[in-house]
Write a structure and sequence with these properties.
It is a single chain. This protein is an alpha/beta fold. It has a single domain, classed as Alpha-Beta Barrel (TIM Barrel), CATH 3.20.20.190. It has 13 helices and 13 strands. Strands 1, 2, 3, 4 and 13 form a five-stranded mixed beta sheet that branches. β10 and β11 form a beta hairpin. The radius of gyration is 19 Å and the shape is globular. The structure holds calcium ion.
Length: about 325
């Protein structure tokens, strides 16, 4: 075996076949530990996730860092650590802090910055523990080294967050992220990497101007217009899906695009996954939360049964990877 190929296999950079729906750890095992910390990623890894998700924004010094939002006051103690560094809207932004400054923050379970109250009250307590924020490159090294030490091949699933907003700020998020993905071997269709984005203009730019050859997922809101020339309603029509199939490998809509109904009796499985499959697109809906279930199901296993067996989705974003692994093992 050529040495480079052997090394890529060792690090789990090449994707394994996908014989069953993929378990995508949403921000890590974020149902149990503060989102996007290496602790949450390690737990998700240990629970058997196939892919670990990274949401990526830029720091002041242009480094891709892992945060769910451009603003960072809902998941860190930035307001206490750097008082006065907020913008006119009262929010604190990753883009206004260097990596060295961001590293001084303590990451926390998500909370409402106005009240300090937890968004998910039954999860890990807010402001407790010692958790550092992570750069994209650090997280990739962490996952590849875990792949080396365990012999598994867990992939990455980076999301380009708010590229249009970054551009308005004079920054190019994708131009900073892609060289890192290329450096670590994630830039082909065989790589264990899905790049995801909510902005259609950026998806087109990735395939066009930026020459990205790796796997791509178009994230979709439920309905209506999104940022960056995105028309979620149109993109879920047959014509929209056919157009998307020229560019991406799959779609990532909310679970409510696949399963509707206000009660279990009124539950209906939509034809979205089937229509997407017809044009060769995978379905990776978000987000399975055991503590925030849709009203159309009685429990978390019923939701998975409907998604996996009836809608036949190809993957699932989950805050609780262990529940999904257990369900699929049955
Ligand atoms: Ca995300």
């Amino acid at each position: 075996m050529p040495r480079l190929l052997a090394l890529l296999l060792t690090l789990g950079v090449l994707a394994a076949a996908e014989p069953r729906p993929l378990i995508i750890a949403h921000r890590g095992a974020s149902g149990y530990l503060p989102e996007h910390t290496l602790a949450a990623k390690a737990l998700a890894y240990g629970q058997g996730a196939d892919y670990l998700e990274q949401d990526v924004v830029l720091s002041k010094d242009g480094v891709p860092v892992i945060f769910h939002d451009p603003h960072i006051d809902t998941t860190t103690d930035v307001a206490k650590r750097f008082p006065g560094r907020q913008r006119a809207d009262g929010r604190y932004y990753a883009l206004d802090f260097t990596v060295a400054e961001l590293k001084q923050l303590n990451a926390s379970e998500r909370f409402n910055p106005k009240t300090g109250k937890a968004i998910f009250p039954r999860r890990f307590p807010v402001g407790v523990g010692s958790f550092q924020i992570v750069t994209l490159e650090e997280e990739i090294q962490f996952i590849q080294n875990l792949n080396r030490s365990t012999g598994r091949a867990v992939g990455i699933y980076p999301e380009l967050k708010a590229p249009a907003w970054h551009r308005k700020e004079g920054r190019d998020l994708a131009a900073a992220v892609l060289p890192i993905l290329r450096k670590y071997g994630y830039d082909t269709k065989d790589s264990a990497c899905y790049v995801q984005c909510f902005e259609y203009a950026e998806i087109k730019r990735l395939r066009g101007e930026l020459g990205w050859q790796g796997k791509l997922i178009m994230l979709l809101g439920g309905k209506g217009k999104g940022p960056g020339e995105t028309d979620f309603t149109y993109l879920q029509t047959d014509a929209g899906l056919a157009e998307l199939a020229q560019l991406v490998d799959g779609i990532g809509p909310p679970i409510s695009s696949y399963v509707t109904g206000k009660t279990p009796a009124e539950r209906r499985v939509t034809d979205l996954a089937a229509r997407a499959r017809k044009v060769g697109l995978k379905s990776h809906p978000y987000t399975l939360r055991a503590d925030e279930l849709p009203k159309s199901v009685r429990d978390v296993d019923e939701l998975m049964r409907v998604l996996f067996d009836e809608a036949k989705v190809d993957g699932l974003f989950t805050d609780f990877p262990d529940l999904c692994v257990r369900h699929l093992k049955r």
